[in-house]
Amino acid sequence: MSDAIPSANASRQLWGVVAVGFGVMFLSSSIKGAYQVYFRDLADLFDLGRGQFALSGALFGLCLGVVSPLVGTICDRYGPYRSMISGALVAALAFVLLGVFQNFPLFLIAYGVLAAYALAAMTFVPMGVWIDSVFAERHKGLAYAAVSNGVAIGFIVLSPLWVWLNTWLHWSALALAIGFGFLMAVAAPLHWAARHLPVDRPSDTSGRPSGRPVAGILAELHQPLFILLAISFAGCGSSMAFIDLHFVPLVQETPVTAHQDTSTVLALSLSILGVFELAGAMAAGYLAGKVQPAMLLALLYGVRALILTWLAVSPSSVTFVVFAAVFGATYMGTVILTSLLCLRLYGPAIKGRMFGLLFTVHQLAVFGTAWAGGLARDITGSYMLTTLGVAAFCTLSVVAAIVLLAVAQKAENDTAEQAPDPIASAGMPGGQGQGH
After folding, report:
1. Is the pTM of this model over 0.90?
2. What is the pLDDT of residue 429?
3. Membrane-crossing residues (predicted)?
């Protein structure tokens, strides 16, 4: 555990961090989950085609990427609490607006911009900074996995709830309830945590200067390591956009046998995805300290590419359930491994900003997949082309992750006789950080 927390209170405070973080991630899943299930109804409500309405999800993904570096800067300079509390308040405002007003331009602003900031300010970037601040190196992966599993439980518990509510509850009433929930069940616990669970910024052990100017950070964007890590993370964004926007309509539009019900198949698939996401995140958190992270990334993206290809060529009730299980097992692992690599490569002083910049690339892939996938569905009448496109993107991420490992090995060999290289702390072959 971190030396920042007195040993007498360590257990209670660390469990408090996990509990509050888990709760925030759990409830934040409703931002995309409710939209995901109500996608067709919302398109009909505004009398728009799938491709046109998918612009709202694409804008959401793009804005999530644009604000992620801002969120990272806030976390680096002021700590994660201010970021997360602001996100909870903005989420409450966004869903109140969505519930009161039924206007598509306003929907684009409230969901595509405000809700995007809210999700970025509450989840992966600030949670990563928070975990890095209070947990020792050997525990970071498991702690981050435990907290991020709030999203998995959201799939397990909340997705069937959204599917059931979708059969009788109007979107406006649901949006108002979600807005109130963020105010009372997210902002209030975070306010308590800010007063009782202190955050202490750890020292930077990466070998890089801690107070780096903007020009120095921007220079990192031209380095092969960042480019390769960004390409691999873009595959995560593309495949997550597929789940968030296109998987549910794909299930809803695929004919099922006479003794089956589409809503039941959908609810079962989303719940299974959540169950395997839970197990997969814990496995990734555990393995992150024992195997090469880049190789594990390549494996996860390879599994995604294969299962997406099968889904594209053979959509059926059985395929949906198997796809949900296999994809779910890889779902959070790519985020956890990328966060850990980012910390070990760049150090805690600028980790928030660098991970935020990686999330910008991640969300650009979300934007492209969300919008182009919807347009492809309108043009072809099916999601086959969309699914195959995402599978191809994941294949590119496999290549990027493998090359990342090779480039890191070469960089380490070239600097073995020089000052300590941050690559060594990334758990790459031969590095001192290996075997955390």
Report:
1. no
2. 41
3. 12-31, 51-72, 84-102, 108-130, 142-165, 171-193, 225-245, 265-287, 294-313, 319-343, 355-376, 382-408
Look at residue 2 in the predicted model and tell me its pLDDT.
Answer: 44
SS3 letters for the chain?
A: CCCCCCHHHHHHHHHHHHHHHHHHHHHHHHHHHHHHHCHHHHHHHCCCCHHHHHHHHHHHHHHHHHHHHHHHHHHHHHCHHHHHHHHHHHHHHHHHHHHHCCCHHHHHHHHHHHHHHHHHHHCHHHHHHHHHHHCCHHHHHHHHHHHHHHHHHHHHHHHHHHHHHCCCCCHHHHHHHHHHHHHHHHHHHHHHHHHHCCCCCCCCCCCCCCCCCHHHHHHHCCCHHHHHHHHHHHHHHHHHHHHHHHHHHHHHHCCCCCCCCHHHHHHHHHHHHHHHHHHHHHHHHHHCCCCCHHHHHHHHHHHHHHHHHHHHHCCCHHHHHHHHHHHHHHCCHHHHHHHHHHHHHHCCCCHHHHHHHHHHHHHHHHHHHHHHHHHHHHHHCCCHHHHHHHHHHHHHHHHHHHHHHHHHHHHHHHCCCCCCCHHHHHCCCCCCCCCC
Radius of gyration of the chain (CA): 21
According to the model, what pLDDT value does residue 143 have?
Answer: 85
